[in-house]
Amino acid sequence: ADKWLEMMGKALSENARNKLNKTLKTIKDWEESFKVEPDYNSIKDLLTSIKRIRGQSMEMELQIIESLEQFRVLKMYEHPSDTEDEEKVANLPKIWENLLEIADRKDHLVAGYKDRFARST
């Protein structure tokens, strides 16, 4: 039973780490898309990023909950895990909230561009 528990813990740990890194990469990529100064030429990409973030909000929140739960189970069964990963997963909800706030600020910032962009297209 101990061997089985160790194998399952190892598989869950690897899966949890992979999902965590994938989620963090997705968030980081979206953050990078906001680092451009909004102008007439980049407005379409910026608005697309904002729309994608809002459209995937529920899915992303479920992924975050799943990651939190996976690391909770690992801890509950005292399976060793990387302290850095534990810190990352603990900060994941806040990182996501920060991205949503950035998206809202950028959306508000480009409100004037939206009208001009809509008229020209």
Describe the model.
- The N and C termini lie far apart (64 Å).
- The protein has helices at 2-33, 43-55, 57-76, 83-109, 111-120.
- It contains 5 helices and no strands.
- The protein is mainly α.
- The mean pLDDT is 90.
Task: Explain the layout of strands and helices.
Blueprint: H1 2-33, H2 43-55, H3 57-76, H4 83-109, H5 111-120
How many runs of DSSP E, i.e. beta strands? 0
Average residue pLDDT: 90
Largest sheet: none
- Measured as a percent range, the helix fraction is over 70%
Protein traits:
121 residues, mainly alpha, 84% helix, rod-shaped
Quick overview:
This protein has 121 residues and is mostly helical. It contains 5 helices and no strands.
